[in-house]
Amino acid sequence: MGTQTSAKSTEEGDQPPSPVPVLLLYNVVEQLEQGEARDLVTDQEVVRTAQCIAEGLRSTGHDVTVAPVRDETDVARAAASADPDNVLAFNLCENLGGRAKDEPKVPALLEQLGFQYTGSPAPTLATCLNKSFTKTHLANYQVPTAPYQVFYHADDPIAVLLPAIVKPQAQDASIGIDRSSVVHDERALRRRVEYILETYRQPALVEAFIVGREFNVGVWGNGVAHTLPLAEIDFSAWPDPYSQVVHFEAKWDEGCAEYQTMNVLCPAQVKPDLAERIHQVALAAYQAMGCRDYARVDLRVKDGVPYVLEVNPNPCLATDGGFANAARVAGFDYAHMAHQIASWAWWRRDKHS
User: Fold this and answer.
1) I need a surface site. Which of 51, 138, 234, 303 has the fewest CB within 10 A?
2) Is 61 exposed, middle or buried (0-12, 13-18, 19+ CB in 10 A)?
3) Please, which residues have CB within 8 angstroms of residue 22's CB and are 6 or more apart in sequence?
């Protein structure tokens, strides 16, 4: 179960299925309804990723139709021109109209229309989008995760231990996280909670800050899932443990010092026993959350215990992103990574037909 994927074949069958026609759906956003104007860069990344995935799939033999999506009407319109019995929907929609909470509507509609699609189903996307729901669900499956508290008002009583990190409850891609997100006292905590409530119009998740090494683990497959080689965030240029945060600018702003110095090391240099624990926790989180085809699990390790920070179903597939890089280390170039994800999804259809 904890073995890293290293060969171009599937556990579910001797060979990946032949290429199939693909309807590739991706979200397009011109204007955000909440948050900071800079957050729009994450949606622009989706457009670039869609182009690269389409090229990769075509190079491996798939006939690909690309369809931009702004709302459910666009999904239905694109689907109307395809045969659900013979076409796979490759779902790259991370929101609808800039609303992250509407991300689950795309797979729900595809399912209603009878399409097989890549990635996780609507209930998994909805649960993983809500960080507190995710943490409660993981705890029910005995998957370690840091203590936390959800704030609905800036003056709610404080129950979580400090220092802590404050995040929007339902955003990904480090949106809403910056250098001020790690708080050490009540005044800073309440100021940061107020920012989340006002700017992102949603509750704030306040999570006990775990000092330790940070890893992300790509997981893919169905039935028997596989972990990709471990990736670690290199914090060596930042000796203060409370500065060791991959915040929004660290992830998206090329001119930012953290962007330039917080490199990702893959494969990570980890002792075998710790690597196995990380793999097992990542697999347990993938399965507990009902992920399908591919996902990424972010963790921090403290006193030898891997704590899950995030479970990212349908994670970013950018050519320079963490999942694609881990797949390359495992032996999959970008095109064959995309083909493999399509193969996992189509295999599910064949298995249940």
Assistant:
1) 303
2) exposed
3) 57, 62, 63, 64, 65, 87, 88, 89, 90, 342
Element holding 89 (H helix, E strand)? strand 88-92
Q: Helices in the chain by DSSP H: which ranges?
A: 41-59, 72-80, 105-112, 122-129, 131-140, 186-200, 248-252, 257-261, 272-288, 322-329, 334-352
The packing angle between helices 41-59 and 334-352, to 10°, is 80
Stretch (H or E) spanning 230: none
Q: Answer yes or no: are the C-beta atoms of 214 and 233 closer than 8 Å.
A: yes
* Cα–Cα distance for residue pair 292/295, rounded to 1 Å: 7
Q: How far apart are CA 149 and CA 65, in angstroms?
A: 44
Cα(213)–Cα(139) distance, integer angstroms = 21
pTM: 0.91
Q: How does pLDDT run across 132-185, given as a tens digit for each residue?
A: 999 999 999 999 999 999 999 999 999 999 999 999 998 887 888 999 999 999
Q: Are strands 294-302 and 213-220 parallel, antiparallel or unpaired?
A: antiparallel
Rounded to whole angstroms, the Cα distance separating 244 from 258 reads 9
* Residue 246, token pair as written in the block: 């991959």
- Beta-sheet pairing, 182-183 with 213-220: unpaired
* Rounded distance between C-alpha atoms, residue 87 and residue 250, angstroms: 38
User: Which sign does the torsion angle of CA 79, 81, 87, 88 carry?
Assistant: negative
- The two tokens of residue 3 are 């073995």
Residue 36: which pLDDT band, with cuts at 50, 70 and 90? low
**What tokens were used for 186?**
């009540």
Please classify residue 320 by burial: count the beta carbons closer than 10 Å to its beta carbon, then call 0-12 exposed, 13-18 middle and 19+ buried.
exposed
